[in-house]
Amino acid sequence: MLRILLSLGIALLLTANGARADWQFFLPPLVLLVTLYWVLHGPLTCGLGFAFGVGLLVDLLGDAPLGQHALAFCVTAHLAQLLEYRVRHFVLVHQALMAGALTLAYQLVVVAIGLVLDDGSLRLAQFNAVWSAMLAWPVLALALRGWHDRAW
Question: Using CB atoms within 10 A as the burial measure, which of 15, 80, 87, 121 is most buried?
Answer without folding.
Answer: 80
